[in-house]
Amino acid sequence: MRGWWRETAGLVLPSCCAGCGAARSLLCGACRAALGGAGAGPVAPAARWAGPAGLPPVFAAARYEGAARAVVLAHKERGALPLAGPLGGALAAAVAAARAGGAGAGELALVPVPSARRTLRARGHDPARRVALAASRRLRAAGEPARVAAVLRLRRQVADQAGLGARQRRENLAGALEVRPGGTRLVAGARIVVVDDVVTTGATLAEAARALRAAGLWADAAAVVAAPADSFTRA
Known about the structure:
Elements: H1 2-12, H2 29-34, E1 41-45, E2 58-63, H3 66-76, H4 84-103, E3 108-112, H5 117-123, H6 127-141, E4 146-148, E5 152-154, H7 166-173, E6 177-179, H8 183-186, E7 191-198, H9 203-214, E8 219-227, E9 232-234
Parallel strand pairs: 2-8, 3-4, 3-7, 7-8
Antiparallel strand pairs: 1-2, 1-9, 5-6
Helix pairs in contact: 4-6
């Protein structure tokens, strides 16, 4: 029984730091600091990307490189579920920066970007929602009223975004999201912040904001764990 537990734990618990590979640690001190959110702030599309229409103000906690990139991928693609805690802390810092940047007072509704069902089945979990839940717990512990409201869903199939350029991503996602029936009640009276783990061109966040507007809702901001330095720059 103990051997079975160890084999199973090995599938989800890294045998070394997920950020840098340091010996037997879920996340070493240096990599945990990289996700600490000390540099959280606004980001904007770099000049070479045409920012998608309707993109709300975006806030990120880290650059999508080094430890931050490694930890995001370990959680998302390899199912290292305990990493949701540190990633949630980073997302909470980005949400707090959004609040300070003008998201306004009142309860926060963190609206995660949904994944396709086939992607969820392949991964075995919902990374964006898991990280959002960890972020909401961190925010509440700090005295910020926050909750997760998974009100968005895909209304049609979309292609894998990997390898697509900015224009192709916008075309792939155009009209792909919608608010679930009854979703407007779940966010009534709250300040909405769309959340995801990474922003690339902004197409996904812009489509999420569009779907909310179509239902009579407004995203005050978007917050992510990390933003690639070559596609998004500090605003």
